[in-house]
Amino acid sequence: MSAQNRRLSFQHREEELDLGVEWKAIQAALMKAGFHGRLAMKKHPLSERNQQIQLRWAQEHVNWSQDQWNSIV
Question: Which residues are within 8 A (CB) of 37 and not within 5 positions of it... i.e. 6 or more apart?
């Protein structure tokens, strides 16, 4: 699903799918199956400095072995 579709409410899903059932029935079925709606967190964009720090860290660790990663955890 697209990022936009993931943020649709149960009511909007019912309108788009037109299954002939109320949105509350869709919500109940999805919740019973273990799906729960959550509000998307809003994040501030990373500063240029922090982007560079993260990029440098990723480049330094891109070739790490599984043993090296396991030693951190």
Answer: 9, 10, 27
Count other Cβ atoms within 10 Å, centred on residue 23. 16
Residue-number span of the structural domain to which 27 is assigned: 1-38
Domain count, the chain: 1
d(CA 15, CA 8): 10
Q: For helices 10-17 and 23-32, give the axis angle rounded to 10 degrees.
A: 110
Task: Tell whether pTM > 0.70.
Answer: no
Distance between CA atoms of 71 and 73, rounded to whole angstroms? 6
- Indicate if the pLDDT at residue 39 is higher than 90: no
